[in-house]
Amino acid sequence: MTLTDLNNGFRDDEQRRRVQRVIHDRLADDRDPQECRFLMRFWWQLVMSYQEVSMDELSLNVGKSKLDVIEALISAIRSSHADIDAWITTTQQVFPVVQDRGFRAAQDNESYSG
């Protein structure tokens, strides 16, 4: 399944940006660099009309729970703007904002040693 049609499925740029924020803030966790890389390639795919990432690549590199959410998004984009809005709401409820614990832990260590 090609993903090159996704950039045309949004109501407007604001809806696309909201979806991209959810992917960035809640799905793409840089503590898993390989998965994060492919989720961010998908993030770009939402803007591009050329193939940035394939479903096969996503299937091989993204965990099951996040892959299910991405597949639901693709279905929503190809269905209706209301389905996209529902995807945003549901995904925000299920996935918390990714906190960069490594960065925070490093900051905490510096404050204790200083």
Give the helices and strands, then pairings:
Elements: H1 13-27, H2 33-45, H3 55-61, H4 64-77, H5 81-94, H6 101-113
Helix pairs in contact: 1-2, 1-5, 4-5
Please explain how this structure is put together.
The protein has 114 residues and is an all-alpha fold. Helix content is 67%, strand content 0%. It contains six helices and no strands. Helix 1 packs antiparallel against helix 2, helix 1 packs parallel to helix 5 and helix 4 runs antiparallel to helix 5. The longest helix is centred in the first third of the chain and has 15 residues. It starts with 12 loop residues before the first helix and ends with a helix. The model has no long low-confidence stretch (mean pLDDT 91).
List keywords for this structure.
globular, about 0% strand, about 110 residues, mainly alpha
Short summary:
With 114 residues, the protein is an all-alpha fold. The protein has helices spanning 13-27, 33-45, 55-61, 64-77, 81-94, 101-113.
